[in-house]
Design brief:
The chain is built from 17 helices and no strands. By secondary structure, it is mostly helical. The termini are far apart.
Length: about 325
Amino acid sequence: MFAPACKKIFFDTVELYKVLLKAMVPTIVLVKFAVEIGALDYLAQLLGPVMGALGLPAAAGIVFASGLLVNNYAACAALVAILPFTPLSVAQATVLLSMVMFAHALPVEQGISRKAGISFVFSSGLRFLTAIAYGALLHFIYSSTQTLQHPLDLSWMTVNTGSEDPLTSWALSNASLLFSLFWVILALVALLRVLDHFKVTEFLAQIFSPFLSIMGISKAATNITMIGVLMGLSYGGGLIIKEAKEGHLGARDVVLSLSFMGICHGLIEDPLFIMAFGGHWSGVVVGRFVFSIVVMIALSRLLALIPDSTFERLFYRPSKDTTAREAT
């Protein structure tokens, strides 16, 4: 039993690591190229006001943009790439990476949500605005209390190459980073398997599920929503698509469930990965979860005021299969 389990953990890690490399390597190269041609100066002019309002340097915009368009891995790669030129405090890194956790991989993940029936514009806008609002709140809390103001140190991920050639040093340093990350991913996968084995994931789902009723999510969508919140939008969104097509979920359940999954999913795996890159648990775990619940309670109350016909016209875009089934 133990040997096969270890073998499965290793091969699962390899598969996840391949996904990570596909996202991180192009981003690392792109950021290096941007630095060499002076593109970060233009980025500073473009994103300076927005990032500055959140207590972040303008170059942090490339981290946020990488997360928005690609995923968490790309954002972390961009973070590591800009650190030599733009030092950050732990508080700044937590603000930035927490924003990425709210709004990342929008083209892909919101494509899943769109297929399940929720309006792409609404769901993407919700995630983006929530990310900005949460970033502003975290910045206010950390700066007001002078918490986590010490420098972010990710030197453990890199090595001193000893090379005088800047390009060679850059390549070897990032190769060291990617090598170190394999073991980080291996540890995360092993931890997740242990949590599953001891039913911790199911226990967390039972604890958190009562909050869903406060958000206006019915019992029919509770289990699916918690799967998405704990394991990821791809898991939960796929189940929502199936249930919506079979007519088991109404429009409001689909919209509210996917909205919650959108701003708060991968509650175990994602924070562990982000924390490896310097994000503090207070922002990426506790604060994110609490803030998401507050947002969803407010959102559910507002949406409850909208008549069903108007609600479906503005927020719900069922697939052709779902529409045909409902008509039947």
